[in-house]
Write a structure and sequence with these properties.
The chain is an alpha/beta fold. Helix 5 packs parallel to helix 7 and helix 6 runs antiparallel to helix 7.
């Protein structure tokens, strides 16, 4: 029988951690890679018998470097990566074990059911590449990067959300926009060589809106869905504007 390790990277994650660990306690191993939390994160992880690895936080503002350490600290080759605010339904656990014990090789993109304004959002689930062999994967140290894996990537069905990660995070709009502001700051170095001409500045935000509103079905949530789609557009505008500003500043300095 194949075995699976669940791996989490954490930093001051006590708010949802007990509920998350309760949902993954039936896996073969839990690995928590902690970035020097100052709350009860490690204490809670120890209650669940997790293998705890310390990743020095230092000046790190993103989780991806710790996430790579987490996956390669697992004792088992198959790993499921979850955030400290994501629950794993029993049906998803059973599905993963059934797949790998039937000879599956590759990686799986797991659907995730998100909340928006305190309700499940029809603009979700999004898909997260979270299940793979750790011996064939690396996680680049770049915000929002997907892991580099070997073999085909298969989408887990999202029908009915039985096989979806349950995202517990439910920020207010103020908290959400604060987070988007921080994330767009972190993204700028990654995009600094990307050129956003007039047409891209005009149409990319529109496409971000339409992809959430129409393609991902946020229209079914009425006004709440409209705000969700506007939020996606706002993030795109923030990111492109900050990249353009950084490029112009760099150009001025080189004169």
């Amino acid at each position: 029988m194949e075995k699976i390790s669940v791996v989490l990277n954490t930093y001051n994650a006590e708010e949802h951690l007990r509920e998350v660990l309760e949902s993954v306690k039936e896996f073969d191993e839990i690995v928590v890679c902690d970035m020097e939390s100052t709350d009860r994160t490690r204490e809670i992880a120890a209650e669940y018998g997790a293998k705890i690895v310390i990743f020095p936080k230092g000046d790190h503002k993103i989780c991806e470097p710790a996430r790579d350490t987490a996956i390669h600290s697992a004792s088992n080759d198959w790993v499921l990566v979850v955030d400290a605010d994501e629950k794993v339904p029993d049906a998803l656990r059973e599905y993963l074990y059934a797949k790998i014990n039937s000879g599956f090789e590759g990686a799986m993109a797991v659907p995730r059911l998100n909340q928006f304004m305190s309700r499940a959002a029809h603009g979700s689930p999004d898909r997260q590449l979270r299940f793979f062999r750790q011996s064939k994967a690396t996680w680049p140290p770049v915000i929002h990067a997907r892991p580099a894996t070997a073999g085909p990537v298969v989408d887990i069905p999202a029908t009915g959300h039985r096989l979806s990660l349950i995202h517990l995070d439910n920020p207010t709009l103020r908290q959400r926009y604060d987070k988007l502001n921080r994330y767009s700051d972190y993204e700028v170095p990654r995009r600094i060589n990307k050129k956003f001409g007039t047409l891209k500045l005009l149409f990319k935000p529109l496409w971000a809106f339409l992809s959430v509103w129409l393609l991902r079905g946020a229209w079914r949530d009425g006004r709440r869905g409209l705000i969700n789609a506007y939020t996606a557009m706002i993030y795109k505008v923030m990111l492109m504007s900050k990249v353009t500003e950084a490029q112009l500043n760099e150009k001025d300095r080189s004169k």
